[in-house]
Amino acid sequence: MRKAVWLLEAALFILLSIPLAILPYRISIKVGELLGILLFHLWRGRRKIAIENLKRSVLAGGIAISDLPEKIIRNNFKNLGRSFVELIKVYYGIDRRIFDSVHFEGIENVNAAESMGRGILFLTGHCGNWELMAVVLSARLKSVAVVARPINNPFINGIVERVRKRCGNRVIYKQGALKSIIQTLRNNGAVGILMDQAVLSDEGYVIDFLGRDAWTTKMPALIARKTGVPVIPIFIHRINGGHRIKIHPPLELSENGNREHAAREDTKRFSSFIEEYIRNHPTEWLWIHRKWKRVNTS
Q1: Which of 79, 111, 195, 286 has its CA 20 to 30 A from that of 32?
Q2: Are 77 and 47 in contact (CB under 8 A)?
Q3: Residue 190: helix, strand or coil by DSSP?
Q4: Cα–Cα distance measured from residue 216 to residue 35, given in angstroms and rounded to the nearest whole number
Q5: For 122-149, what is each residue's pLDDT tens digit?
Q6: Distance of CA 266 to the CA centre of its chain
Q7: Rounded CA gap, 50 and 31, in Å?
């Protein structure tokens, strides 16, 4: 029964995505924005979470905004809609304009890291069109293995995985990921980790995030300290008519003599780049995620 449901979902995905893929670029982007607005009105639970997350971050002093929280979150949903349509076009390989609209800033930082010959650990979050960043980075600059969870529907997951492979991108699934991550880095490869989602207590540290305590993964810090690979924050944000991928210089790790304290300090510093992104681009972060769950934020 479950397999039949998955097949039906995959068929509906293909059926509904084809028109978005073949529509002219400008029209399809408008349709994506409308889908985002529709989602904003229909997905009440997540809309409430997003608005509450933003309001609490403002009250805690973690972020300053110049517009109403409801309007920012509405635009946030519009961004999700646009991102979805862009990915559909990339998956079908129909419109190269999206790839061509992505501009890089800081390529020299990747070149400097590569010269060390120890692999690269890219750090990012659910910012802008992060899925587009992964495939464009792999297709145009350096092949990256991204740590992620599989999509629940294995047929849709297979479609997405084939596209990623076509662009030189691959996925390391979170279950038992550490061994594959270490092996990839030791082979002078690149691994990308999105580190802005809440984790279980044995997987991270409680650190300040936008003015409130939040569980944050310690995996990147532990990997960096174990392997000595250069750590590079990387983010994508929208600009007029396209996207810009900003690549930061490699980061220095904490020199704290206490290993646990050093890893915690590294985690806080790594996470601060996501905070900076959110402050600069508040409509482009995934506010619908329960980042502050399992921590008393009252």
Answers
A1: 195
A2: yes
A3: strand
A4: 31
A5: 999 999 999 999 999 999 999 999 998 8
A6: 19
A7: 22
The pair of structure tokens assigned to 53 is 């997350």
3 state DSSP class of 122: strand
Between CA 173 and CA 147 the distance in angstroms is 6
Residue 144's pLDDT is what? 95
Closest among 276, 148, 271 to 214, alpha carbons compared? 271
Helix (H) or strand (E) holding 249: none
Sort residue 263 into left (φ over 0), alpha (ψ -120 to 50) or beta: alpha
Query: What is the rounded CA–CA span in Å between residue 291 and residue 197?
Result: 6
Rounded CA gap, 64 and 79, in Å?
20
Q: Which residues contact 185 (CB under 8 A, 6 or more apart)?
A: 118, 119, 120, 121, 191, 223, 227, 229
CB 264, CB 53: distance < 8 Å: no
The tokens for 155 are: 């047929």
Q: What are phi and psi of 127, to 5 degrees?
A: -125, 135
Token representation of residue 195: 């580190």
- 203, 217 contact by CB (below 8 A): yes
Helix (H) or strand (E) holding 109: helix 107-114
Contact 145, 170 (CB under 8 A): yes
- Residue 217 corresponds to which tokens in the numbers above? 């993964």
Q: Are 234 and 105 in contact (CB under 8 A)?
A: no
Q: How far is CA 150 from the centre of its chain?
A: 14
Neighbouring-strand partners of residue 213: 208
Closest CA to 73 of 57, 105, 49, 102: 49
Confidence at residue 165, expressed as pLDDT on a 0 to 100 scale: 83
Task: Name the residue with tokens 């010959």.
Answer: 117
